[in-house]
Design brief:
The complex is a heterotrimer of chains A (142), B (542) and C (98).
Chain A: E1 6-7, E2 19-20, H1 21-26, E3 32-35, E4 53-58, H2 65-75, E5 81-86, H3 93-99, E6 103-106, H4 112-120, H5 136-141
Parallel strand pairs in A: 2-3, 3-4, 4-5, 5-6
Antiparallel strand pairs in A: 1-6
Chain B: H1 6-27, H2 33-41, E1 45-47, E2 52-56, E3 62-64, H3 65-78, E4 82-85, E5 91-96, H4 101-109, E6 127-128, H5 143-153, E7 168-171, E8 185-191, E9 197-203, E10 216-222, H6 226-240, H7 251-258, H8 260-274, H9 283-291, H10 311-320, E11 321-323, E12 329-334, E13 345-347, H11 348-361, E14 365-368, E15 374-380, H12 381-393, E16 408-409, H13 424-434, H14 438-441, E17 446-449, E18 463-470, E19 473-480, E20 492-493, H15 500-517, H16 524-531, H17 533-541
Parallel strand pairs in B: 6-7, 7-8, 16-17, 17-18
Antiparallel strand pairs in B: 1-2, 2-5, 3-14, 4-5, 4-13, 8-9, 9-10, 11-12, 12-15, 14-15, 18-19, 19-20
Helix pairs in contact in B: 1-2, 1-4, 3-11, 5-9, 6-8, 7-8, 13-15, 15-17
Chain C: E1 2-7, E2 14-17, E3 22-23, H1 36-45, E4 50-60, E5 63-66, H2 69-76, H3 93-97
Antiparallel strand pairs in C: 1-2, 1-4, 2-3, 4-5
The chains are: A alpha/beta (142), B alpha+beta (542), C alpha+beta (98).
C-alpha cells in the first residue's frame, strides 16, 4: 500500500482501509471505499454522506476512467478525501487535481520538485470543473 | 481569423516549457520511453521510420501568411526542406530531432501555433470546410464553433486518457466538404424552422479497420448547449468505450455495440446532469470569437469578367476555382499534386510563397483542405490571372482539383512505421499514367492508404486503394464506390489484390470502362452506382 | 542472422548494432545470436538507443539485408526521395529495398 505523498486537505486522513465497492455495500460502518476502473462511481452516490475516503485506482496510467469517476463524485457533492492511487505519474497529477482529487498515493513516489512544477504549470484553464478555478471564458467576460 | 489573447498565448507558452521539461527528463533518464511516449504524442511527436515526425496543428485548416512563413522556415531550419499537408488539415515534418522539438514548439508559439493533442488518446484537431466564410451555401461560418471546441478540448482534464484518439469535424452546409459523417463526432450547424441556430450531432463515424458512417443522435442541440452536449458524448465514451482491444476502442464501436438508441439515451442522461454544472461558455464568448471571423473588407462594385484567352489559365480556372458568395471574388485551390509528384508535399520555399500570395491576394488567409491542397479563399477575380502565373511558375498551378490526378495519399511505407505498403509510388504512377485523360475522365476522387488505419481515407474514395502486406510483399486492394459527401458511402473491394504495376493497370481499366459506359453528365461515381460492381469487376479482372 | 536496430534517442536517426555501438549503416550490423534481449535491455537503459528491436537478416553479396521491406526502407531512406537517402548518388539503391 503506497504512502499518500501529496494531500490538499487539512482534516485527519481516514485510518480505515478502503474496501471494495462490492464489500462496501455489505458493511454499514465502512467509511472508505476503493473504486476500480470498471466500477461505476454513481453506485456510490446514495452513500456519499457516510464516505470519508474514496480511493480511485489507476492500474495503468493510460486508463482514464478514474478522471470521470472523480468528477462525477465531486459533481454529486462529495467533499471527503478523493485519493488517486496506482500508476500515478507526475504528468497526470494536474489533470487529476482539476478532476477533484485532493490526495495522491503513487505506487512509485514522485520527485517532489517535479510534482510541484506540474501542479503549478498552468496559470489558467479553459474548462470549468468543480475545482473552482475560473475558466478563461469567465475571465474574459466577467 | 482567430487571434490569441494573453490567455491563449500563456497556454501555449506554458505548454512549451512543460514539454521542454519532459524532454529533459527523458534525455536524462528520469522517465522511460513508455512513460514519455504518451507525453510526446500529446505534443504531436511520433517516432517514425526515419526520424521523429512532428504533426503541427492547423485548427480547422485556417492559417495566416505569417504562420505559413513560419511553417516554411521550420521546414528549412529543422527539417529537410519540406513539409507534408495531411488529410486532417495539419502539416507534418518527417525529419525532426527530439532535442530540437521544444525549440520548434517555441517558434510555433511565437506565431500562435502549436502541436497540442495532434496525437495521443485525446481530442485531436477539429477540422472544417475549406471554403468556410467563402461558400454561398453555408448557414454560418462553422469555424467559430470549431474554435470553441478547440479551447474546450485543449488540456481537458477528464478526456486526456480516452480509450483511443478522438476526431471531430464541424460544417455548416448541407454539402459536406469535410467528410463530417466519417468522424467520431461530426457536427452540422443548422437553422431550425424558427430561424434559431443549433448543432446536429453525428456520433460514431470513422474509417480504419471497421469503417462506419455516423448516425445522427440529435438533430438539433441549441447552440448555447452544444459544448455541454459534446462533454456528455465524451464522458459516456470515456467511461464505457472499450479498453481491452486497441482495434475496438474507438467510439464507433461503442455506438455500434450499444446501438444508437442506447448510446443516445446515455448521452441525454449525462447531458441533463451536466446542464446543472454550468460548463457552457457564455454566448458572449461565441460572439467574441465570431467577430474575428467577420468578412474581410471586400470591395464592392467589382467586375465578374475574366479573360479566358490563355487556355492554360482557363483550364485552371474551370478546374480549381469555386464561385464565391461575394461578387467579384473567387476561391482558388492551389494543387499540391503535380503530375507524378508526392501528394501534399511542399518545399519550404513553396510554403513561404503561398503565404506571400495569401497576403497579397487573399486578405492574408489560407486554408488547408483534407484533400491535401491549399485554398486561397478570397481572391479578386481581377487578380486571378496574375496569381495563377506565379503559381504556374512555381509548380503550384496544376489544374486538377477533384480529378484523378488529385490523389489523396498517406505517407505510407516510405515514411510511416504503421504502414504495410508504400502508397506514394502508386500515386505517382497513376498520376502519370492517367495525366493525358484526366480532363476527359472528370471528377474522380482517388484515395490511397498504406495500411488499414486508413489515413488516406481509401474507404471514402470513388476509387480507393489499400496497401497490404502479402507474405512480406506489398500488395494492393482496389475499392470502388466510396463517397464522403451528404450521400456518404463506403467503397467495396473489387476482388483479389494486385502488385504495384497491377494496381495501376487495374485503375486504368476501371476508368476506361467508365469512359466506355458513361451516360450524359455522369461522373465515375455515378456510372459505378448505376452499373454496379459486377460489370466493373469483369472489366478489371476479365 | 539476427540483427538489432533502433533509433537514436536525441536525433531519431535509424541505427544498427555493430557489436560495440550503434551505427547509421546497416552494413555494419552484426549477428547477435541469442543475446538480443540482453543487449537491447542494456543499451536502452543507458539511452544509447531508443525503441530498438531484433530482426531477421541475411548476408548476401550486397551486404547485410534485413528480411522485411520496412527495415530495408529504414536502412536506406524513403524510396520516393532518393536525394534524402543514405545513398543519394546510387541509382540502384532503390532496387535493393524492393
Amino acid at each position: 500500500m503506497a504512502e499518500v505523498q501529496f494531500r490538499f486537505r487539512s482534516d485527519e486522513p481516514v485510518a480505515d482501509p478502503a474496501v471494495t465497492v462490492d464489500s462496501f455495500g455489505e458493511q454499514s460502518n465502512a467509511s472508505a471505499v476503493r473504486l476500480e476502473p470498471g466500477d461505476d462511481a454513481r453506485d456510490l452516490l446514495p452513500h456519499l454522506d457516510r464516505l470519508q475516503l474514496i480511493e480511485v485506482n489507476f492500474p495503468v496510467f493510460g486508463d482514464g476512467r478514474g478522471y470521470s469517476a472523480a468528477r462525477i463524485l465531486r459533481e454529486a457533492g462529495y467533499d471527503g478525501e478523493l485519493r488517486a492511487v496506482g500508476e500515478v505519474l507526475v504528468d497526470q497529477i494536474a489533470f487529476m487535481r482539476r478532476c477533484g482529487f485532493d490526495a495522491f498515493a503513487p505506487e512509485v513516489p514522485l520527485d517532489p520538485a517535479d510534482a510541484e512544477a506540474a501542479f503549478a504549470r498552468y496559470d489558467h484553464v479553459y474548462q470549468p470543473t468543480t475545482d473552482g478555478r475560473a475558466p478563461i471564458w469567465n475571465l474574459r467576460h466577467g | 481569423m482567430y487571434k490569441y489573447d494573453t490567455y491563449d498565448q500563456a497556454m501555449v507558452d506554458a505548454r512549451v516549457e512543460e514539454f521542454r521539461d519532459q524532454v529533459r527528463r527523458r534525455l536524462e533518464g528520469h522517465i522511460t520511453e513508455d512513460q514519455f511516449k504518451p507525453l510526446r504524442l500529446m505534443n504531436g511527436l511520433y517516432l517514425q521510420l526515419h526520424a521523429y515526425m512532428l504533426r503541427v496543428a492547423i485548427p480547422y485548416g485556417t492559417l495566416s501568411s505569417a504562420q505559413m512563413r513560419m511553417l516554411g522556415d521550420i521546414a528549412d531550419k529543422y527539417d529537410r526542406g519540406y513539409g507534408h499537408f495531411t488529410t486532417r488539415q495539419n502539416i507534418q515534418y518527417n525529419w525532426i530531432k527530439l532535442e530540437d522539438a521544444p525549440d520548434i514548439l517555441a517558434d510555433l508559439a511565437s506565431v500562435e501555433m502549436h502541436a497540442i493533442q495532434t496525437s495521443g488518446n485525446c481530442i485531436r484537431n477539429t477540422t472544417s470546410d475549406q471554403y468556410a466564410g467563402a461558400a454561398a451555401d453555408e448557414v454560418v461560418d462553422p469555424r467559430p464553433y470549431a474554435e470553441l471546441i478547440r479551447q474546450w478540448s485543449t488540456f481537458h482534464p477528464e478526456f486526456s486518457f480516452l480509450p483511443r484518439k478522438f476526431k471531430m469535424a464541424v460544417i455548416a452546409s448541407d454539402i459536406d466538404r469535410a467528410a463530417m459523417k466519417l468522424h467520431d463526432i461530426g457536427i452540422q450547424i443548422v437553422r431550425n424552422a424558427a430561424g434559431e441556430i443549433g448543432a446536429a450531432f453525428y456520433v460514431g463515424g470513422g474509417m480504419g479497420r471497421t469503417p462506419m458512417i455516423a448516425p445522427c443522435i440529435n438533430p438539433f442541440v441549441p447552440i448555447d448547449q452544444f459544448i455541454t452536449y459534446s462533454e456528455a458524448c465524451l464522458r459516456v465514451y470515456n467511461r464505457h468505450g472499450r479498453r481491452d482491444n486497441k482495434y475496438k476502442a474507438r467510439i464507433k464501436i461503442l455506438v455500434h455495440e450499444l446501438g444508437k438508441d442506447e448510446y443516445t439515451r446515455q448521452v441525454e442522461e449525462e447531458f441533463a446532469h451536466l446542464l446543472t454544472q454550468n460548463i457552457e461558455p457564455p454566448l458572449a464568448e461565441l460572439e467574441r470569437i465570431k467577430a474575428m471571423f467577420a468578412d474581410p473588407p471586400f470591395e464592392t462594385g467589382l467586375s465578374d469578367e475574366l479573360d479566358r484567352s490563355d487556355p492554360d489559365f482557363a483550364l485552371w480556372l474551370d478546374n480549381n476555382c469555386l464561385a464565391h458568395k461575394q461578387p467579384g471574388y473567387i476561391a482558388a485551390t492551389i494543387s499540391l499534386k503535380p503530375v507524378g509528384g508526392i501528394p501534399g508535399d511542399a518545399t519550404g520555399e513553396q510554403i513561404r510563397l503561398m503565404g506571400d500570395l495569401a497576403k497579397q491576394y487573399s486578405f492574408d488567409e489560407l486554408r488547408v483542405t483534407h484533400a491535401q491542397n491549399i485554398v486561397l479563399p478570397h481572391v479578386k477575380k481581377a487578380d486571378l490571372y496574375a496569381l495563377w502565373q506565379v503559381l504556374d511558375a512555381n509548380g503550384l498551378g496544376t489544374a486538377n482539383l477533384d480529378l484523378v490526378g488529385d490523389i489523396i495519399a498517406c505517407p505510407g511505407l516510405d515514411y510511416c512505421s504503421l504502414a504495410n505498403a508504400r502508397s506514394i509510388p502508386v500515386a505517382q504512377k497513376i498520376s502519370q499514367r492517367l495525366a493525358g485523360q484526366a480532363q476527359q475522365i472528370g471528377e474522380l476522387k482517388l484515395k490511397i492508404s498504406g495500411c488499414i488505419n486508413a489515413c488516406g481515407h481509401h474507404h471514402a474514395g470513388h476509387i480507393g486503394i489499400l496497401g497490404v502486406d502479402k507474405k512480406g510483399v506489398e500488395n494492393y486492394q482496389l475499392l470502388l464506390g466510396g463517397c464522403e459527401g451528404a450521400d456518404t458511402s463506403l467503397g467495396q473491394i473489387t476482388g483479389p489484390g494486385f502488385d504495384e504495376d497491377g494496381i495501376v493497370d487495374a485503375v486504368e481499366k476501371a476508368t476506361s470502362f467508365y469512359l466506355s459506359q458513361r451516360q450524359d453528365g455522369e461522373r465515375f461515381l455515378d456510372t459505378y452506382r448505376r452499373i454496379g460492381m459486377p460489370a466493373f469487376k469483369e472489366a478489371i479482372y476479365g | 542472422m539476427k540483427i538489432l536496430t533502433g533509433n537514436d534517442l536525441k536525433t531519431g536517426a535509424v541505427t544498427w548494432w555493430d557489436g560495440v555501438q550503434w551505427s547509421l549503416h546497416v552494413e555494419d550490423a552484426v549477428d547477435v545470436g541469442e543475446h538480443a534481449d540482453t543487449i537491447l535491455a542494456r543499451e536502452q537503459a543507458a539511452r544509447r538507443v531508443n525503441a530498438a528491436y531484433a530482426i531477421d537478416a541475411i548476408k548476401d553479396e550486397a551486404g547485410v539485408r534485413p528480411a522485411h521491406i520496412k527495415d530495408r526502407i529504414r536502412a536506406l531512406g524513403p524510396t520516393v526521395r532518393p536525394d534524402l537517402t543514405l545513398k543519394p548518388a546510387d541509382p540502384a539503391a532503390g532496387d535493393w529495398v524492393i
